[in-house]
UniProtKB/TrEMBL annotation:
This is DAGKc domain-containing protein. Pfam families: DAGK_cat. One of its GO terms (molecular function) is lipid kinase activity. Residues 1-131 form the DAGKc domain. SUPFAM superfamilies: NAD kinase/diacylglycerol kinase-like. GO terms for biological process: sphingosine biosynthetic process.
Length: 371
């Protein structure tokens, strides 16, 4: 069965018109067309339809997240039409090109479906929060620290700043925060070890502290950035935060984890207000590097703490490839208790933790990607 689902509130509220003008005329035999009118409408509509089901989805990553979490055992293949704000999954499947016409760019998944391309199986991150009876499934990103704070605070700006600008405003609001927590990085199931990216060899190598007898790593904060991805190498069309997810394809059941810990900076000796303020330009430089085709993973510290590109000092970013992670926030730091799962904000209770594993739940979700 072929259905189309349009979220008219996504992005700049242009999805309905784009479908009428460009998507539906290309499709024959669409059985149902739904324009959603509330959160949960898409999954309610799908719930009684038979499998296998092909869904032409005009939205952002949020509506996909909603459907996957509500109907985890369904046989659904998605045709993506990017109508949201960031469209991370679509932009990762179809990296934008400077000379590409906008309409043609947005119809690539539709064309893959029309051309009978083989769908791409999606990996899913499963995030469990202490005390919660159900896990949250994500096909894009699970994060804590600055990224989770940005998503949390940007939601209040959605009406006044519907585009990407709201994320930049929220980033400014949270720029001096450091997040007190402990993180455990879990080994890749097929290899039994945690791997870390080595900029000098341009390879993932076994982390020296991940051994056969003790494969998990324990990282101590404070953190400024902690973000894991599946299926994607970017969170926006130009923001390649985990570029190696595409450049060095991962083994099954793994995520890429990007970590920034300010006390690795040779010029910072302690966590105090002065250090937090002085570190802000370096945070922006790192995130700016993600907009430069993922250049941030090549940044290194000089002896005086200045950030260089491909220098001899330690990498600024710790880039892990792993089977998942655990996050144990300090109870005295409420902002460290936020977790972002594909834009949905989860809250870790006091004395609790978050645990994220990859493809822990069997599923049959796929998407029409590049031909």
């Amino acid at each position: 069965m072929l259905v189309a689902i349009i979220n008219p509130a996504s992005g700049h509220n242009a999805a309905e018109q784009f479908f009428a003008d460009h998507v539906l005329p290309l499709l024959d035999n669409v059985d149902h067309v739904l324009t959603t009118n509330a959160a949960g409408h898409a999954e309610q509509f799908i719930r009684d339809l038979p499998d296998p089901l092909t869904v032409v989805l005009g939205s952002g990553d949020g509506t996909l997240h909603e459907i996957i979490n509500a109907l985890p055992n369904r046989l659904i293949t998605f045709v993506l039409v990017p109508c949201g704000t960031a469209n991370a999954l679509y932009a990762s499947l179809f990296p934008p090109k400077d000379d590409q016409e906008t309409t043609a760019y947005k119809l690539q998944s539709v064309q893959a479906f029309i051309n009978k391309a083989t769908p791409v199986h999606l990996s899913l991150a499963s995030t469990s929060i202490s005390g919660s009876p159900t896990a949250s499934l994500s096909s894009v990103v699970v994060s804590t620290s600055l990224h989770a704070s940005i998503l949390h605070h940007s939601e209040a700006l959605r009406q006044t700043h519907p585009g990407l600008e709201r994320f930049k405003i929220a980033a400014e609001q949270n720029s001096t925060k450091w997040y007190k927590s402990r993180a455990n990085i879990l080994p890749i199931p097929s290899r039994g070890l945690v791997e870390i990216y080595d900029p000098k060899s341009n390879k993932f190598i076994p982390h020296p502290d991940s051994t056969t007898d003790s494969p998990a790593l324990e990282l101590h904060g404070p953190f400024t950035y902690f973000l894991s991805t599946v299926n994607i190498d970017r969170l926006e069309p130009q923001f390649r935060i985990s570029p190696l997810a595409r450049a060095i394809p991962p083994p099954p059941a793994t995520c890429d984890i990007v970590v920034l810990r300010p006390l690795r900076d040779p010029s910072i000796a302690q966590d105090d207000e002065q250090s937090r303020v002085s570190y802000v330009p370096k945070v922006w430089k790192v995130l700016g590097g993600a907009y430069q085709d993922g250049a941030h993973i090549q940044f290194t510290y000089a002896a005086n703490g200045e950030i260089e590109t491909a220098g001899d000092g330690p990498p600024v970013i710790e880039y892990y490839r792993a089977g998942g992670w655990e996050w144990v926030p300090d109870d005295q730091d409420p902002d460290a208790h936020l977790v972002c799962a594909d834009g949905a904000i989860l809250h870790i209770p006091d004395n609790g933790r978050a645990a994220c594993t990859i493809d822990a739940i069997p599923h049959t979700f796929s998407v029409y990607g590049p031909v």
